[in-house]
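[Automated response] Your request has been received and processed.

Submitted sequence:
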Amino acid sequence: MRTGLKKHFQTYSDNLTNLDDLNRSGRNLDETILAGLTYQDWTEVADSVSSALTDEVIEQSFRQMPDTIYQLTASPIMNQLKSRRDKLGKSVQKYYKSLMREAVVVGSDKHERFEIEVLSANEVRVQVYKTKKDGEERRQLFDRIFQAKDTKEIHLYGLNGNDEFVVKGEVRPKIKIRIWGGAGEDSYTVKGSKPMARRIRIEDTEYRNTYDLSKGTRQKTEQSPAANQFDAEGWLLRYYLD
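Generated structure:
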């Protein structure tokens, strides 16, 4: 702990601090599965936990210990737990902002359509739809409006399958939009003003991918980009390697 090599190990104190380090081993998973939750969702869950974890509940729980052990250890631990409960809201707020600074939206090994719309300088809406191979829409998988006050970049990963990315807007967003198509035959459409397009960066190969981009869009093509290796199995593997 003193050398900083194991920052996800922390002493149990009155303060619930630095959730970035405490949750380091699960950070990638949090980024993947929690991107659709708003700050209100987070606060509602935190409030429900704080409300349910009353002083009475805590004290009754510790009373399950043998009386001798309770007398020796319960009081300081209960006080620490109550303090951490009372500070849960602020801790959650900090972790949410850290997690959403670079939001991650991930597809699958099947076919999806990503629709990205710049609503204003401060708002970008991302919708993801499951599609058939011919592009016919099946159902919506994801829908969220990202706010510039929380999010600086949005990272979109198509993974495998034939994915379609459609970006539109006329206003230059404060949020950068980065797209990796991954494996499969992907299509990219960027329609809108040049200032908006300059905030878009696309990475994939030229082979069997199609591009219809507004002037100013940043496009990087390589024969073997790392993104081309991103299928669902590889995406999960990165968690074991971190």
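Summary generated for your ticket: The longest strand covers residues 137-147. The chain is about 35% helix and 30% strand.
If you did not submit this request, please reply to this message.
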